[in-house]
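Appendix C: a fully annotated inverse folding record. The material below is reproduced so that readers can follow the format used throughout the book. The structure is listed first as tokens, followed by the designed sequence.
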């Protein structure tokens, strides 16, 4: 297989891409977002990947419900592997996508049947003579600095153009280290968008409708990930004790802390974050 073309990415983006690849492998879905669980699972109900895939389609429909009448052209920023783009394309929108990941590029082209142009770039480096009616950030805003996002979107839109953003956000800047700490502080993002000339048209907090996906990922990681890891460790301890000792040391040194944190993801989300869908309109170019 041809090796995907590399773009020059900062280390943080490479870590994020690794996490996205893990999610891609786990879900085997065309979407990379958390989905929208329309009816919330009952206490003790088993969460399945099949239900997650249903939730992911419901999320695409939820995004669609935020798109105002008359919108034709959409730039899908951080488009992932094409689920949202294909969904919108099937409903008559003219879509273009961009993301800084060559593996996603291959899958995007396949999942959109080569019908949707893809740009292999970060949003910050994207330049075009095309203009768009709406710019979509579906779980990609957290990877882009608030000022770059706001000013970049304002540059690509005409007056009256829309920005649709759906993502996790932090309540406050006090939570600053750990798995979700790259998410924007909601008030800071709002400030940057207002400063760039955007006005909030519609917003909805869907935190409780995405949270089951966090539970599902933690459950799967605990059941399959950790159990498999422990089995391999047990076998190594019997077969190659020195290698076991070395890996055990490396695990305690580098992996234990992030794993413990990952297992607490739901509590961290509940305590520090929310998940919001926001429709903004550019009311004046500044
Ligand atoms: C969680 S995925 C969401 C994918 C897709 N929007 C979806 O909803 O399924 C985040 C996406 O943002 C992209 N991304 C990360 N950094 C970016 C940047 N600086 N500019 C544009 N996209 C970026 C990732 O490569 C990935 O495609």
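Designed amino acids, in order:
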């Amino acid at each position: 297989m041809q090796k995907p073309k590399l773009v020059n990415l900062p280390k943080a983006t490479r870590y994020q891409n690794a996490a996205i690849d893990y999610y891609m492998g786990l879900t085997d879905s065309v979407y990379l977002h958390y989905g929208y669980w329309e009816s919330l699972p009952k206490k003790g109900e088993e969460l399945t990947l099949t239900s997650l895939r249903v939730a992911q389609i419901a999320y695409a429909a939820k995004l669609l419900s935020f798109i105002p009448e008359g919108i034709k052209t959409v730039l899908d920023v951080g488009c992932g592997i094409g689920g949202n783009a294909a969904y919108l394309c099937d409903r008559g929108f003219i879509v273009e996508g961009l993301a800084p990941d060559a593996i996603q590029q291959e899958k995007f082209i396949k999942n959109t049947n080569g019908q949707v142009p893809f740009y292999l770039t970060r949003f910050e480096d994207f330049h075009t003579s095309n203009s768009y009616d709406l710019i979509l950030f579906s779980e990609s805003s957290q990877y882009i600095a608030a000022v770059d996002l706001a000013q970049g979107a304002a540059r690509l839109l005409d007056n009256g153009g829309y920005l649709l953003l759906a993502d996790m956000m932090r309540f406050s800047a006090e939570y600053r280290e750990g798995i979700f700490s790259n998410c924007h502080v909601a008030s800071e993002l709002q400030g940057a968008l207002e400063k760039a000339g955007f006005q909030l048209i519609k917003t909805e907090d869907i935190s409780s409708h995405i949270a089951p996906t966090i539970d599902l990922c933690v459950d799967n990681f605990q059941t399959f990930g950790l159990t498999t890891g422990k089995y391999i460790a047990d076998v190594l301890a019997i077969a190659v004790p020195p290698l076991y000792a070395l890996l055990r040391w490396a695990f305690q040194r580098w992996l234990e802390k992030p794993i413990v944190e990952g297992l607490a993801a739901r509590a961290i989300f509940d305590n520090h974050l929310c998940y919001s869908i926001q429709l903004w309109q550019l009311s004046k170019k500044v």
